[in-house]
Design a protein that fits this description.
This protein is an alpha/beta fold. Helix content is 35%, strand content 20%. Strands 5-4-3-6-7-10 form a 6-stranded mixed beta sheet, with helices on both faces. A two-stranded antiparallel sheet has the order 1-2. The protein has a two-stranded antiparallel ribbon with strand order 8-9. It is elongated. The two termini are 25 Å apart. The N terminus and C terminus are likely disordered.
Length: 308
C-alpha cells in the first residue's frame, strides 16, 4: 500500500499520541498531491481492481434512434416536445473508499516504536487525503470511541476534516476496557451499511479476531475489496524470556515470567490470529499486510533511527 515509495515520510512528534495539526499536514504528503491529470485519470475509472456492483449515472439525452432500448425513453420530454428522446447513462466512475480504524484500548500500546493507535491514525489519515485528492468518495468509522460515528462516503473536504478531527480526539482520549466492542460486532454492523464495490481499509491489531469475525470478513470480501492491515507489537508475538517483566495498565499491574509451556501457548495464540487473516487473504480482492510498531512502511521509527 505504502511500500515502494522512497519519499521521506513525516514522523509523529510523540510515540503515544498524534495531534490534529500533524494529521492535517499529512495532506501535503506527496502521494496525496498527485498531478491533476493523474487524479482525473483515476476519477474517470482507471482503477486496477475488482470492483463489484457499480451503478449507472444519468448523463444526457439525444433523439431516439432505431434499436434504442425503449426502457430508456424520456417520456416527460417526449410529452413536452412530441418527439422521442433516449436517456444516456454513464457508469459511475467514483469508487467509495471506507476506513475502519480500530481505536479500542489494546491499540494504545507499544514496547518499541510508536503506539499501534498512532500507526492506525496516520495510515487512515493518509488514505483519507489521498482518496480526496484522487476525486473518490471517502468515509469511515472509528471503532472503540464513545459514539463510534459512521461517516458515509463523500468527497466533501469538510467531512474529511471532521474525520481527521475525530481521529486526533480519539488518539488523546484512550477508551476504557469496559467500553470494548468486539471486532465481530463491528464487522456485522459494517456489513449492513457498506455498499457493494467499496474499497475497505481495516487497521487493527485483530486481538479478538475469531471465527465469527472471520465469517464477516469473508462475506464482505464477496462484494467489497478489502485491505487488511494487522498492527502488532513484538511482545505480542513472544513473551520475554529469562527474567520477569512488570507491566502497568490503567487499573492493574501484571508481572510476566512465563515457563516454556506458557510461552508456547502464547506464541500459538498469535499464530492463530495471523492464520485467520491469512485465510481471508486468499480470497479474491483481499490484500493483507502485517506491520509492527517498530517496523512498518509509514515512517522511520525511533528504533530504526537508533540502529543506523
Amino acid at each position: 500500500m505504502f511500500v515502494g515509495d522512497k519519499t521521506p515520510r513525516p514522523v509523529p512528534h510523540k510515540r503515544h499520541v498524534v495531534s490534529l495539526d500533524e494529521l492535517i499536514n499529512l495532506r501535503y504528503w506527496p502521494p496525496a498531491r498527485g498531478h491533476s491529470r493523474e487524479r482525473m485519470a483515476i476519477r474517470e475509472g482507471h482503477h486496477l481492481s475488482h470492483i463489484r456492483g457499480r451503478g449507472m449515472e444519468f448523463d444526457d439525452v439525444r433523439e431516439y434512434q432505431p434499436g434504442d432500448d425503449i426502457r430508456h425513453l424520456d417520456w416527460r420530454l417526449m410529452a413536452r416536445t412530441g418527439e422521442a428522446h433516449t436517456k444516456l447513462y454513464r457508469e459511475e466512475r467514483e469508487r467509495p473508499v471506507f476506513v475502519l480504524v480500530d481505536l479500542r484500548s489494546p491499540m494504545y500500546f507499544a514496547t518499541q516504536g510508536h503506539f499501534k493507535s498512532v500507526l492506525a491514525c496516520y495510515a487512515a489519515t493518509m488514505v483519507m487525503w489521498t482518496t480526496l485528492a484522487n476525486g473518490d468518495r471517502i468515509g469511515g468509522q472509528l471503532l472503540g470511541t464513545e459514539q463510534s460515528t459512521i461517516f458515509k462516503p463523500s468527497n466533501n473536504r469538510q467531512q474529511v476534516m471532521r474525520m481527521v478531527s475525530a481521529l486526533a480526539e480519539a488518539s488523546s482520549q484512550r477508551p476504557t476496557s469496559h467500553s470494548l466492542t468486539s471486532l465481530s460486532s463491528a464487522l456485522a454492523q459494517a456489513e449492513s451499511y457498506l455498499p457493494s464495490g467499496t474499497l475497505v481499509y481495516l487497521f487493527s491489531d485483530f486481538h479478538d479476531v475469531d471465527e465469527a469475525a472471520q465469517q464477516h470478513l469473508m462475506r464482505l470480501a464477496q462484494r467489497c475489496e478489502l485491505k487488511l492491515v494487522l498492527i502488532s507489537d513484538p511482545l505480542e508475538q513472544r513473551l520475554p524470556e529469562g527474567k520477569p517483566y512488570r507491566f502497568l495498565g490503567e487499573d492493574q499491574e501484571i508481572t510476566v515470567n512465563p515457563n516454556a509451556k506458557q510461552q508456547a501457548r502464547y506464541v500459538n495464540q498469535f499464530e492463530e490470529r495471523v492464520q485467520r487473516l491469512d485465510y481471508v487473504h486468499h480470497l479474491r480482492g483481499v490484500e493483507f499486510a502485517h506491520w509492527q510498531t517498530h517496523q512498518h512502511p509509514l515512517f522511520a521509527s525511533p528504533t530504526a533511527k537508533e540502529g543506523r
